[in-house]
């Protein structure tokens, strides 16, 4: 339980951040509104001012995760140019998944309703980079292909299905194959 009770500020934000911490510690099944309220130092009914139910809190946590992912891939993209920027995005994506596996699983799992606008923002960064690398008429399928590759790698890594000595080098190598394998880069 929190050692100092919550008194003022942005309760919604506090509940989302506390929820992320609980998600890390106990997973989706171990996260409850009552438990998050207790950890945040507020009454058991306080979260209901911001969230109708656990699913609404999970959706807000997932939206925060997608925002953090967007920031990470955007920063990676800005650090380089061309194909190297695409590789940097892939590395940032996998790094995020490895650092926040419970949040990553929530973001892409069945516990959160589909159609989140926040989910599209991170994909938009990838799509913009791909559009600079491939002819416009191939950009959408190339972006989906690159995302599928990197997302698959991230999932395999956090689920312990593969354990390469250097995951970031693996991401770069896979994306190099993407460049050679039919993306028809400019």
Automatic annotation (TrEMBL):
A GO molecular-function descriptor: transcription cis-regulatory region binding
Keyword terms, alphabetized: DNA-binding, Transcription, Transcription regulation
Organism domain of life: Bacteria
Pfam families per UniProt: TetR_C_33, TetR_N
Protein name as annotated: Transcriptional regulator, TetR family
DNA-binding region: 32-51
Every HTH tetR-type domain range: 9-69
PROSITE patterns referenced in this protein's UniProt entry, alphabetically: HTH_TETR_2 (PS50977)
Transcription keyword on record: yes
InterPro entries: Homeodomain-like_sf, HTH-type_TetR-like_transc_reg, HTH_TetR, MT1864/Rv1816-like_C, Tet_transcr_reg_TetR-rel_C_sf
